[in-house]
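The data are set out underneath:

___
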Amino acid sequence: MKSTFLTVLLFTSFISCSQEKIPDASWQLKTAVLAAPEGQREGAKVYGYDSNGNIVVLREGTNQYVCLADNPENEGFQTAAYHKDLDDFMTRGRELRNQGKGFQEVFDTRENEVKSGKLKMPDRTTLFIFSGDVNPQTKEIENQKVRYVVYIPYATAESTGLPDGPKAPGHPWIMDPGTHRAHIMITPQAAVKEK
């Protein structure tokens, strides 16, 4: 009897901790849209996480943006917003990761599917990655930063005139050149600390 009680107590604690880790839908929605440009937040489609950690649609969209809430399984806070034309590509990546595939396998699979025409990849489209620190008391996002990505499949340093690696904070460069996932990356400059 004592061991049964202990087992139930441990299981209940595990479930409770798991559910506490996933924020409620309203907070997910509120923070997910921070990645989108300010005038586009209200009409953006929003994906978030249910109590089991599965990706679900929190809100259907009426404009060209799709937002993704912070993944509670990852360390730190990060949301994303991207053009709706990129949704199939992003969804496919999530499907493959859910099947247990690692980065290179996901990359190679999508590369082959884009080349074969099975997976649609827009000629050019945008992605915004929003990050910061969650204030434990207020739950507001502090130290906010945005990283900008412009996908231009199969572009190279030569075809764009951009360097193939970061040269200085805030300057554009091309990542994954010559592949389906070629994109211009613009990382934020480090915040200037007051003296």
